[in-house]
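Ticket reopened. Same input as before:
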Amino acid sequence: MTTGRIRRAALAAVLATGIAACSAPGGGGEGGNGGSADAVVIGVSSEPDTLSPLLGYGKDGNSKLFDGLLARAADMKLRPALATELPEVSEDGLTYTFTLRKGVKFSDGEPFTAADVVFTYRTVLDEKTNNPSRSELDAIDDVRAEGDHTVVFTLKYPYAPFAARTVLPIVPEHAAGGQDPNTGSFNTEPVGTGPYTLAGWSKGEKVTFRANPDYWGGEPEVAKVTVAIVADDDVRATRLRSGDLDGAVLPPDLAATFAGDGARKTHEAESYDFRAVTLPTGNPVTGDRAVRRALDAAVDRAAMVETILDGAGHPAYGPLPRRDPWFDRSTERPRDLGGAKRILDRAGWKPGKDGIRVKDGRRAAFTLLTPSGDKVRQDHALAYASDAKEAGIAVTVESATWEVIEPRMKDDAVLAGFGSAGDPDFALFTLLHSSLAGDGFNNMARYDNAEVDEALETGRRTRDRDEREDAYDTVQRALKDDPGYTFLTHIDHLYVLADRWDGLTTQVEPHEHGFASGPWWNVEDWRPTS
Amino acid sequence: MRPAALPWGGMARLTGRRLLFAAPVLLVVTFGVFAIAAASPFDPVKAYAGTAALGADQQTLDRLAANLGVEGPFTQRWWHWLTSALGGDLGWSPVMRQPVAQVIGERLVWSALLCAVAFAAAVVAGTVLGLLAARRPGSMTDRAVTSLSYVLEAAPVFWIALLALWLFALEWGALPAGGLTDTGSDAVTLAGTLRHLALPAGVLALSQLPWFALYVRQGVGDALAEDPVRGARARGLAERTVLLGHALRSGLLPVLTLIGSRVPELITGALLVETVFSWPGIAAATVRAATSVDFPLLAALTTLATAAVLVGNLLADLLYGLFDPRVNLDDM
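Engineering reply: fixed in the latest deploy. New output:
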């Protein structure tokens, strides 16, 4: 044996271990779909915790496997789904009557009736059901069937946005009844009336849907939908580029790399998803109204949209985005650094030796916590700190996990993100009402403003559109006068998708997005490009 | 060199002793898992509720805690888990939302496949490399193998995994980046599985390979200087026979012990590799169970891993006893 032969053998051995079984090189791209329009593979960052609506799946609609009594159109308006029309509401606003669609069948062939609706709502409301969103249906006093095709809800108190909650998916009593809703087989073998049925769910890897040929709304043309769960943004972008995925949700910088791609289109969805700094009422600095107002005036929202979001977003002046019909345009305000300084001067916060303001021996300084790993939030936090510094307020940015942040939310500011679509009540009440101060992640800043509380109550009790509008204008203006949160931006959600279908739209999306939102919110209605 | 008959009695006695010893070990390990999980900052209720926890009020979270049975001291939960596990009921996993037995059943086969392929590759390739290096100490081959081994030994396995992912999946597009099947297809085919197995198994093998290469190199190198080899050479036997028949045979003895002691590292390595390559094995489930404080799943998986380590050690000792006649199994 010569040294050369040994060396060659060694090399061969190394290669053999490294690329053992690499028998089909170049096959990486074959995975997707072959470019046909009747199947789509999309990549999202996280999977649903459950596919059972009884445990919270699809409560905001677009659940693919199920339908609610109502659904939302592209413009977010409510439209009938399993109900034949929008509900009849009694004069006192306490009784909602739904007439149900006839002839609808679950994917196992059994008919859909009012009993299924009653079963679904009663199970969700049951104390023993592990549904973390149960409180959203708190207003319901009773739900009962009148015959096979009428359902009547009775509320404990008038709750104006109640109809918007009835997008909750309906599950069949015959399949989900008679078992523990938390652990029963329905969780892994869901049956619904929806446009798709579940073909497979490999946890942490992908969920596969197959078109329901008997769907009451017509069989979807996209026969197979695969949702791959790829947590890492870069990996998702790469798999999209390699053709393994047809579409994916991407952060702005990665979406920009697909800008010149003729075969793929970028879809921008506006959202309710705001980034804001919580200013805890209990902290003597952030609880001071002058400091809050100065911070609000000092931040450069437009610059954040441009530099952090690459233009894919909008300045946020409150929890509601500008596109929302309830947004109060009078609360739009430009940056006013001079004004911020004047407010602080007048309130007695005088610049100290290091340029940081001091009042009664207390420095205008606080800590801003930002969840680690979220680059967009971290960038917001750093920009916020630098804007605040110009006004003479020292903000120390600290990155931490939620486990660390949670016990400190009472005293330290947090770069928070939230936003619910559907009704102003959904986002505003839990964010601002003093009764929910520090309750879980609700009202993280422990905002406490009697005027706001009252307007929030009015907004959810009355069904009169003008009265509601007044109430939510009051909230938004009060929030401008006493900004217990510094709202920074509403971020657009970006999706890149192969250009093989026509008429794609996006909804205005809530904070949570990926699986039920994006251009595939209505994949059942897609038509192949002719 | 091989004993005429296998020492069945000694092997059985050793196995029995180890089994007796395993019971308290497993008991302590599961108790430790419950204690550590209870002390961790992760909240099982928040993990269960997922993103919905962000909007949930305290009353809802308290109700979930009560329903999930995660209230009360961990010792009580441990006892409850232990008694039902001994009765054959491994419990229900809140994070995977499946019975624990089903989670393990679905995933164990893929983890076993990954570990077995990687381990076999590591042993074979490591032995070959070690032999080549030992043949001429100080030669180019020796120096290459030795330094490569030290580099691989020092490199964290997740780092090698990311590097391989970048090179093979991103730069060359030669192999899929993760998963068990192509994203768009559901069928598990032999060719498809092999292609998807190549990277994770290769990386895992690479991380274990240096230990075997270095041990074989040392063992064979020592053996080459010993009398039997010198005698064989003096008798004019072919170099190949000397190397494979004499030096390798006695040089392999320490490697047998190594096989047993590498099992724990193989399991932790698989944990990281499976996570990087989205391999649907039990390791990926372990990570989720740990970060979600999923007591039943975590305890079952830890028991499984502990058992694997104990069995690995037992196997190594049995083999050692078989191959080295000087060892008395009853002394172990």
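Residues 465-481 of chain A form the longest helix (17 residues). The longest strand of chain A covers residues 196-202. Please confirm and we'll close it.
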